[in-house]
Give the backbone structure.
Amino acid sequence: LNQNEYLIVADFDSMAEMRNISLKNHETIEVFGHTLTPKYEQCQEGFIEMSSNHINSGVIIVSDEIVDETKIAYSSIIGNYEGDKKEKEDRNR
């Protein structure tokens, strides 16, 4: 993601459809004094917090370089953990 770009991650279809209109029109947004243009013309499928329902109406993702860290209100680490189930069971014995 370049410093002048943003993208939106969403999985709530009706909200993503509305956001896609702005993305297709290349609408700019202002974040921390930077004017950003969309990297893609549609929302990227995804979520930040796991849920059994598709409830992510849209999260705006920007480059780390433009973030004013004094304004951070929430922080989390999200990962995709994969491993060998048998190996894990053997370690837990």
About this structure: The beta strands are 5-10, 29-31, 34-38, 44-45, 59-62.
